[in-house]
Amino acid sequence: MSIRHRPARRLLPLILAGVTLAGIALLLVQDAAPSLFPSRSHEFLAAFSLAAIAFAYVIFQLIHRAPLKELAKAIMLAAAFLFWAANQFWPNLPKASLFNDIAIALFVLDVFWVIKGWPANSKERSFAGDERISDRRGMGCGCACCGRQAG
Q1: Would you say the C-alpha torsion 146, 123, 59, 93 has a positive or negative sign?
Q2: Is the pTM of this model over 0.85?
Q3: Tens digits of residue pLDDT in 110-126
Q4: I want to staple 56 with a disulfide (CB 3.0 to 4.6 A). Which of 11, 13, 81, 133 is the partner?
Q5: For residue 54, what are the contacts with CB-CB under 8 A and spacing of at least 6?
Q6: How many whole angstroms separate alpha carbon 13 and alpha carbon 51?
Q7: What distance in Å separates the CA atoms of residue 22 and residue 5, rounded to the nearest whole number?
Q8: Which alpha helices (H) appear in the chain, and where do they start and end?
Q9: Do residues 150 and 138 make contact, with C-beta atoms less than 8 angstroms apart?
């Protein structure tokens, strides 16, 4: 059965991402008016937002049946967000600095792989997931906006 026939499953990552955006809105409101929130809520809201978007992204990749290499890369990126969340939630933990450094390393590795074009068998994509303009053979740009297709 095609994913198009299962709209409820496709909504799960979108709903989770929407809840994440609501958490971000609360985080920004707290920055503007901290007295309206209980103590330690900033750490919770920051960590929640990072963890929730990590899970939303992995669920999105699973639902869209990403190839194994792309799924592994998505899980690595989600792990980076989770380490960053741990650093936000437990800033005074002796390992907080390690969690932050692991997150940085994973984010840098992810961007390196994007720049390098890994995995090679996947479609060329930008950071936002849109197809890049590609005209290696001069046979059309291959973008989704103009309708001309390479090949």
Answers
A1: negative
A2: no
A3: 999 989 988 875 554 54
A4: 13
A5: 77, 78, 79, 81, 82, 85
A6: 13
A7: 28
A8: 7-32, 41-63, 68-89, 96-116
A9: no
